[in-house]
């Protein structure tokens, strides 16, 4: 990962880099190496408003992986706006769902 960052930003880290910026980069690189080598505990939080992410559990059964947690939430208005969902008219789909839902339970 560090090599990838250095390739992308290679010329940014040359001799002309200001000392405080070079220091910030070196600190970031040190912290990243600690995380990658598991020297420090860390938590990855994925905020996936469309639920498109997949994380495989370490164990065979999802219930047995106590380090993996799922938290469902309602998207904010801003998230819906960014995804273009606030302007969607779903009334016909809602009506179709309601009609099939009531016929299946009757």
Automatic annotation (TrEMBL):
Cellular component GO terms, alphabetical:
nucleus
List, as start-end ranges, the regions of compositional bias called Polar residues: 88-106
Question: Where in this chain does the record put each ZPR1 jelly-roll domain?
Answer: 17-85
Q: Where are the stretches annotated Disordered?
A: 84-106
Q: Which residues form a coiled coil?
A: none
Task: Show the InterPro entries listed in the entry.
Answer: ZPR1, ZPR1_A/B_dom, ZPR1_jr_dom
Which Gene3D superfamilies is this protein grouped with? ZPR1, A/B domain (2.60.120.1040)
For this entry, the protein name equals ZPR1 jelly-roll domain-containing protein
What lineage is this protein's organism placed in? Eukaryota, Viridiplantae, Streptophyta, Embryophyta, Tracheophyta
